[in-house]
From TrEMBL:
It comes from the Bacteria. PANTHER family: GNTR FAMILY REGULATORY PROTEIN, TRANSCRIPTIONAL REGULATOR, GNTR FAMILY. GO terms for molecular function: DNA binding; DNA-binding transcription factor activity. It comes from Frigidibacter mobilis. Gene3D superfamilies: GntR ligand-binding domain-like, Winged helix-like DNA-binding domain superfamily/Winged helix DNA-binding domain. This is Transcriptional regulator, GntR family. PROSITE patterns: HTH_GNTR.
Amino acid sequence: MSSFQQLSRTEHLPKRIAEEIGRGIAEGRFAAGDKLPTEHVLAQTFGVSRSVVREAIAELRNEGMVETRQGVGAFVTDPQRRATIRVEQARLADPVSLRNFFQLRLPLEVEAARLAARHRTPTEIVALDLALDGMVQARDWLDEGVKADLAFHRALAAATQNEFYVIFLGFIAEKTSTTINTLFPREMGAEIVQVTIGEHAAIHSAVVAGDAARAGGAMHRHLINSAARLGIALEAG
């Protein structure tokens, strides 16, 4: 990693760091299965904060170049497993693009919630339980809370028993979590956090109960409200 250079503050730092690490992976400096240096080491190497490094790792995760294991670190993925979907994170800072992104999320995630209610197994129920509990217990919402939120949506995708929902919704969830960290102030109000947790609890309850209609409705309300919290108005019909 010593071959990397510190970056200019005028650059979009997470993107540039992701590009630098991605280049290292492409050039073979990191092989499939290799663990990347820790956030602390990367932050020192590039001369940035750890939060900037987290955004860069999220970009790489979006591209399928790395996978993260909670409490362990980020690992380089097998090239055969890497995603080909690409959406520049900077585009989601544009209100029109962000609205279009949520319009895409709405039908996909509502149907995913319905399918999850029909096809969930005890394994996915446990994963949803853990993710919801992680949201409730999070001390720093924009770190621990958003990670638990991401885990919830991944578990929901897995509960559909459809591999393509896992791929697409995993990608969407990653983009959404990065957008939240970018657009929200560092501290989120307790009321917003509690409302968000309540929306996920409603989805969780419906999925566990096997009520597809209620699960779809709860997800629809969550997405409409999530968009509104980001200043995006979606059709509620």
